[in-house]
């Protein structure tokens, strides 16, 4: 069983665009700061949330780095590449028809 937020698994993160990922990263870092503050003041009830937020942040960084290295495609550029291929095929079909 994986530790972390249920909505922030690798498949869901890979489906987000880079802007949404950076926004989610910012939110997760804010939550981690608040949890650490609660832990320092003795108000934190469950330490497991700290662990899951850290893992969520690591997953986000992993997806961003994979996109940077070209291992995983970004959602928006992948759609643009598909459109480019379709337009090239259409142009080639027109040329062949002439």
Automatic annotation (TrEMBL):
Pfam families: Ribosomal_L29
Region feature Disordered, mapped onto this chain: 77-98
Domain of life according to the entry: Bacteria
Xref: SUPFAM superfamilies: Ribosomal protein L29 (L29p)
A Gene Ontology BP annotation from the UniProt entry: translation
UniProt xrefs under NCBIfam families: L29
Name listed for the protein in its UniProt record: Large ribosomal subunit protein uL29
Organism: Kocuria rhizophila (strain ATCC 9341 / DSM 348 / NBRC 103217 / DC2201)
């Amino acid at each position: 069983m994986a530790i972390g937020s249920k909505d922030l698994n690798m498949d869901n993160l890979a489906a987000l665009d880079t802007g949404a990922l950076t926004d989610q990263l910012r939110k997760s870092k804010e939550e981690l700061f608040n949890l650490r503050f609660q832990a320092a003041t003795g108000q934190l009830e469950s330490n497991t949330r700290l662990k899951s937020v850290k893992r969520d942040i690591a997953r986000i960084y992993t997806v961003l780095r994979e996109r940077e290295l070209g291992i995983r495609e970004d959602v928006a550029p992948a759609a643009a590449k598909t459109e480019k291929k379709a337009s090239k095929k259409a142009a080639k079909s027109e040329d062949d028809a002439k």
